[in-house]
């Protein structure tokens, strides 16, 4: 790997960790969470302190007011909904306070348990967290929204249906991040165990798909250089097919 390519990879690594990229991920997560915030306090319990904090609570109520206005929720039903959120929020804050008083340690970013989790787990795939949170929980909210839409208030029902769709998108986004992290870890493991085989030009079936482009034509000197410490700090994507 020449100095120019090494510099390019260094710049890429720095860019990935830059404040701009972190801010973009923060905004993406915030947008995902705001849609879920419309019902999250009503469907979960046991959240961590930093997961259910003052900033989240303020953002949640602002989002509810904005979306309620867009869906033209009648004032009576909006008051009931806001009242339910206030009661649920007070309960969650009390649980967090009591946990701290009793010195109970819970992960501060824990997203909580679904209230009807035991019931939902009996359905096909219910033991899979991604299906549970990305299908069954939103479906439960959507059914409640449809019932309210048909029999009580179309605005409030539409708000819940909107939130259920947003919950699906949120889980899909977090699942994509999870898969990316998992695949990155797998690739690093494969590269660490098969980089010498790849440098020696072995076929992909013997290296779990990790191959170094044009490795069979490397000079012995280049092969020795790339097999040393330098290769451990190199982005293999520039060498692979």
From TrEMBL:
It comes from the Bacteria. Keywords: Membrane, Transmembrane, Transmembrane helix. The chain crosses the membrane at residues 52-70, 76-97, 130-152, 158-175. This is Uncharacterized protein.
């Amino acid at each position: 790997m020449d100095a120019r390519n090494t510099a390019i990879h260094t710049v890429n690594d720095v860019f990935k960790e830059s404040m701009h990229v972190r801010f973009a991920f923060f905004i993406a997560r915030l947008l995902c969470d705001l849609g879920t915030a419309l019902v999250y306090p009503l469907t979960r319990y046991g959240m961590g302190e930093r997961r259910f904090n003052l900033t989240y609570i303020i953002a949640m109520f602002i989002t509810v007011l904005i979306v309620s206005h867009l869906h033209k929720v009648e004032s009576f039903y909006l008051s009931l909904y806001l009242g339910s959120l206030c009661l649920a929020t007070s309960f969650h804050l009390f649980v967090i306070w009591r946990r701290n008083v009793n010195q109970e340690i819970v992960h501060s970013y824990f997203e909580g348990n679904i209230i009807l989790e035991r019931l939902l787990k009996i359905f096909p795939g219910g033991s899979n967290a991604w299906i549970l949170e990305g299908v069954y929980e939103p479906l439960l909210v959507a059914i409640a929204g449809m019932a309210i839409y048909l029999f009580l208030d179309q605005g409030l029902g539409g708000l819940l249906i909107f939130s259920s769709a947003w919950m699906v998108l949120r889980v899909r986004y977090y699942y994509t991040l999870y898969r990316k992290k998992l695949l990155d870890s797998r690739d690093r493991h494969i590269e660490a165990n098969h980089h010498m085989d790849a440098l020696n030009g072995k076929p992909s079936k013997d290296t779990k798909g990790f191959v170094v482009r044009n490795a069979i034509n490397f000079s012995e000197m280049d092969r020795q250089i790339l097999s040393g410490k330098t290769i451990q700090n190199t982005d293999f994507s520039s060498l692979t097919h």
